[in-house]
Amino acid sequence: MRDQSSSEADFPESLLSADAAARTALVQGFAGAEPSGSEDASQEASYAFAGFWIRVGAALLDGLFLTGISFLIFNPLRRAFTAGPDVFSYIDLLEIVFDFAYAILLTWWTGQTLGKLITGIRVVNARQHRSQLTLGQVLLREVVGKFLSALPLGLGYLWAGWNRKKQGWHDLIARTYVIRDSKRT
């Protein structure tokens, strides 16, 4: 029999309630602990995790694309429908929605934005390696996770530079990896 003082973390996740399993998995993810299943470990070994600098390159390419869209589409609309550059208008709101939709929808549908496609990297689900990212997972990564990663002077983004699996805080929160895309080679 087990001692009454043992913690929940000693039990296999399959024996815990769904809430307790999620809590222990989240703690393991932030602590950088090894995955519990051998299938997970073998799948991780086959990944070539994308490092910090290639991810920066992809983000810069995405920024260039979105800036181009702003100059070509939103700036002419802004000049045509607003009083001046100091006024926040519906066009500005539309541009913000477009920027979020770009990141969220492309990541959800393909695991790649245009910048990630050009650099040959992809966002994948860390839990179910062959399954597509869920919309909730993408929203958690792209909205909540990236906001939290940016707050302490971008430390959450820099985290990918020294994390063993090259995960930023937004990846750890949403349980995702950014890998080099094997379909490209």
UniProtKB/TrEMBL annotation:
Residues 50-174 form the RDD domain. One of its GO terms (cellular component) is plasma membrane. It is a multi-pass membrane protein. Keywords: Cell membrane, Membrane, Transmembrane, Transmembrane helix. It is found in: Cell membrane. The chain crosses the membrane at residues 52-75, 87-109, 143-160. It holds the Pfam family RDD. This is RDD domain-containing protein. It comes from Brevibacillus borstelensis AK1.
